[in-house]
Give the backbone structure.
Amino acid sequence: MKAFPMFIRTSGRRVVIAGGGEQAAQKMRLVLKTDAEIVLAAAMLDDELRGVVAQGNATHHPGRITPETFKGSALTFVATGCAGADAALHALAKDGGAVVNVVDRPELCDATTPSIVDRDPVVVAIGTEGTAPVLGRALKTRIEMMLPPRVGGLATLAGRLRGAVADRLPQKTRRAFWEWVFNDAPAALHRSGREAEAAEMIKTAIADCVLPDDAGKGHIALVGAGPGARDLLTLRAVERLQKADVIYYDRLVDPDVLELARRDAERVFVGKEVGASSWPQHKICALIVAEARKGRRVVRLKSGDPSIFGRATEEMEAAATADIPVEIVPGITAASAAAATLGRSLTERGKTDTLVLTTGTCQPGDLSPAWTGCWRPGTTMAIYMGVQSAGKIAQKLVEAGAPPETLVDVACDISKPSERIVQTDLRNLERDLAEHAVIGTALIMVRCPKARRVAAQAAA
């Protein structure tokens, strides 16, 4: 690092902004978020700056600017918009012993202005040492999306109660208590806007001088990893990954997704193959329950959405039987991602008004899915795990009345670098899958639009 990141205390201190135009106003808007005394040093001020002075939120120094103007300031911004004036004011500020930031002149800056995510008193600052401010703003946008809007309020509440916690709770239990506050029921209540209930819950726990029953209790989250690309994860999915103690994932989860997890989280591969598995479902259920019983936060990471052919029901039932809290964190399913890649909607007004999600593979001993009962004009069928049954699927649909020339898109590795689409029809589906070496869990999408059938009937 060429610059050391730190926060400067502004309480009871001055921040001097040298300049009276838009550049000075931009810096003033930032400093107004603090409790600093703002001094605007310029002969003339624009309308916005004059308004702030009139409201009593800043003072105007219209006279001669000298080194004394900057003496004792916590920070000085030079923002006139004129290169010569900025250089001269920089020299005066340095003579006055100030820490100086000159707008758009990194070579004259003792300190640079970071991109700020403000959830007062929680503040995140992103700096690029003046090399890439656009990148800093882009990172700020991502963090803005990740941080709950009310997290600052919860931090403020915790600050007011720290003394009571120190007085009433034994030191060895305090960490677990605060983890409960920020990660469990109080945080969930506060995040949903029920701040008064969250505060009452925390205060009751402090008054009782004991950890709540759910503090330190294990938890299972069935998290949808989406189709592959890690930027398609939901914010909640990322949050659960970053809180997890242990993560169980299978072969369909892209390694990049695991990089979003907490660095010290344990990662366990529970690979499953279609038709065979060294990790049968009952073994996975027993394992995640056993870890949660130890008080650990368990994430069962599944590709796509856990509730769409993701075996979520078995794992939720296992958790419920063991009286362990469990939740589903939805993910983007392959059908939605494939439609995005193809550049079209899964449904289209006047053409496809029905969307069917079905599977080509059932558990041993079950009858094949009723694909023929799902087909009719106006339907988009997304068939998961159907490659091995492609020939049978095509045959059954044609027998049910689907034209052999009905278009089919086969989506492989959607949103991953190896992504590809094979376009064919029902007549040639099995042959084209073989020719393109499509194996595994590709998604078969069959489109049966109304328009063609309606047009044919009108012509008749």
Remarks:
- The chain is about 40% helix and 20% strand.
- Confidence is low (pLDDT under 50) at residues 452-460.
